Amino acid sequence: QVQLQESGPGLVMPSETLSLTCTVSGGSISSYYWSWIRQPPGKGLEWIGYIYYSGSTNYNPSLKSRVTISLDTSKNQFSLNLTSVTAADTAVYYCARVTYYYDIYYYYYMDVWGKGTTVTVSS
Amino acid sequence: DIQMTQSPSSLSASVGDRVTITCRASQSISSYLNWYQQKPGKAPNLLVYAASSLQSGVPSRFSGSGSGTDFTLTISSLQPEDFATYYCQQSYSTPYSFGQGTKLEIK
User: What is the rounded distance in angstroms from the CA atom of residue B39 to the CA atom of residue B103?
Assistant: First the structure.
């Protein structure tokens, strides 16, 4: 049974870089898409982006200039870097696996999620 | 970008009630629609994918329907553990987007 676990600093200074890692256990990272999603306090979900096991990426244009998602297959991990953070980046950050159902077309959905990690941007 | 709008934003219901939550897309997304349940302090949990396919392990009282721009999530007989927030999400095109959520509360 695949499990995901986020890790990283819980407090980041404004203007600095937020760095998180998601460790995949119980399965290989060498397939599927792997995604980051965030949720500001009391608000809804925002998709940040994903990385394919081949290394190709796709980012939300609202964050694209500040986001990098990378993969380390040797450690079965993928990571999120978000630069120049402000208080608006304070949120719970989730990693998730993106899988698909094939029925003539590919239907993508996020079926396994990490528990989430809270990141606060404050001085 | 595709905007997803859920209604209602909140809903009060009783155990045993039949409940329907609606999700509307700003353009046609065929059946590229997923539903998630989120309980306080927990990660979202996938309920339905591809508009109407029930995720393994999800109780059969949950069902999804719709195509194009209009979708529904129905809970046929509410159970105490169903009181949570529900989100729809489109995977027709990136950036993936979620509805604002529907909070289901106990009456």
Answer: 10
